[in-house]
Amino acid sequence: MLYAALVQMNLPILYSFRRCPYAMRARLALMHCGAQCELREVVLKEKPSHMLDVSRKGTVPVLLLPNENMLSTNSSTTSSTAEYTVIDESIDIMRWAMNQNPNRNLSNASRWQISETLSIDEINALIINNDLSFKKQLDKYKYSDRHPENTQAYYLAQALPFLENLNRILSNSQFLSGEYFRFVDAAILPFIRQFAMVNLKTFHDLPLPHLQQWLTTGMNSELFSSVMPKFPQWKAESQQDIIVFGNQQSN
Questions:
Q1: Which of 22, 82, 147, 187 is the most exposed place for a label (fewest CB within 10 A)?
Q2: Residues 150, 157: Cα–Cα separation, whole Å
Q3: pTM for this structure?
Q4: Which CA distances in Å does 224 have to 15, 70, 102, 196?
Q5: What string of DSSP letters covers 58-105?
Q6: Does some domain include residue 240?
């Protein structure tokens, strides 16, 4: 559930950008696991000074947890200000939503961490490969004009082994960790979506039927649709209503 309202409670704050795959996967976890926060939609060319003050990284997503409601995150990427504990890595936001959010839906959060097909080490390796290697290849493929030392077709070929590995995994199950959309799917799908959107015909012409079906199913899901509405740019000086993002569910 997403809505605009004047809210009296002291909610966490999420700086986000709708199309950013890192922010997208953070929103998927927050929504599915039953978190609520104040969403502040960022325009990347006009980053809010408050976001830059609390996070040196300077990119979305950034989750600010009011210190009075804070549980230990046990993360090396967490920092603090006088008012907030700051989580500014998307995977850490996902893990906070599943494991430490005091208002989480325990059933949803627990089921999201089950895997019938991959070990924890295999899941972590997939996400690391996605974040460190594939994302670099994706950026060069998407912005090939900025990397004229090679052709766009070359960057596509460089990205193919990762896509082929996902397709192989998905040949045995509907989703990456079994028969349900879970944590690892949410962590990776936004990046495959971004890759596909560079050239949809090229993507659908690739011999990757299981990956293509997985992406279509994920993007057509109620969960994915629920985190993709368009919101106006947040401005500190504006009088706009607070945007409450999330789904506060009972266990």
A1: 82
A2: 11
A3: 0.92
A4: 18, 27, 23, 16
A5: --S-EEEEEGGG------TTEEE-SSEEEE-SHHHHHHHHHHT-TT--
A6: yes
Give the span between the Cα atoms of 225 and 212, in whole angstroms: 18
Nearest-angstrom CA–CA distance, 88 and 10: 19
Residues 145, 127 share a domain = yes
Same domain, residue pair 42 and 103? yes
Q: How many CA atoms lie within 13 A of 230 on its CB side?
A: 2
Amino acid at 7: V
**Interatomic CA distance for residues 216 and 109, integer angstroms:** 23
How does pLDDT run across 131-175, given as a tens digit for each residue?
A: 999 999 999 999 999 999 999 999 999 999 999 999 999 999 999
CATH number of the domain enclosing 158: 1.20.1050.10
Question: Do both 185 and 197 map to the same domain?
Answer: yes
Domain that holds residue 189: 120-221
Angle between helices 21-33 and 183-198 (to 10 degrees): 150
Q: Is residue 35 part of a domain?
A: yes
Count of structural domains, the chain = 2
